Amino acid sequence: MATAARKTSAKSKADGKAQPTLKTPPPAKFSKEEELKAYRDMLLIRRFEEKAGQLYGMGFIGGFCHLYIGQEAVVTGMQMALIEGDQMITAYRDHGHMLAMDMSPRGVMAELTGRRGGYSKGKGGSMHMFSKEKNFYGGHGIVGAQVSLGTGLAFANRYRGNDNVSLTYFGDGAANQGQVYESFNMASLWKLPVIYIIENNRYAMGTSVSRSSAETDFSQRGLSFRIPGIQVDGMDVRAVKAAGDMAVAHCRAGNGPIILEMQTYRYRGHSMSDPAKYRSKDEVQKMRSEHDPIEQVKARLLEAKWATEDELKALDKEVRDIVADAADFAQTDPEPDPSELYTDILL
Amino acid sequence: MPIEILMPALSPTMEEGNLAKWVKKEGDKVAPGDVIAEIETDKATMEVEAVDEGTLGKILVAEGTEGVKVNTPIAVLLQEGEDASAASAAAKAEAPKESKPGEPAQAEGSAGGKAREAHEEPSASKDAAVPAAPKLEIAADPDIPAGTEMVPTTVREALRDAMAEEMRRDEDVFIMGEEVAEYQGAYKITQGLLQEFGARRVVDTPITEHGFAGVGVGAAMAGLKPIVEFMTFNFAMQAIDHIVNSAAKTLYMAGGQMGAPIVFRGPNGAAARVAAQHSQCYAAWYGHIPGLKVVMPYTAADAKGLLKAAIRDPNPIIFLENEILYGQTFDVPKMDDFVLPIGKARIHKKGKDATIVSFGIGMTYVVKAEQELRGMGLDVEIIDLRTIRPLDFDTVIESVKKTNRLVVVEEGFPQSSVGDHIASQVMQRAFDHLDAPVITIAGKDVPMPYAANLEKLALPNVGEVVEAVKAVTYRS
Question: Which UniProt keyword terms apply here (chain A) (predicted)?
Answer without folding.
Answer: Oxidoreductase, Pyruvate, Thiamine pyrophosphate
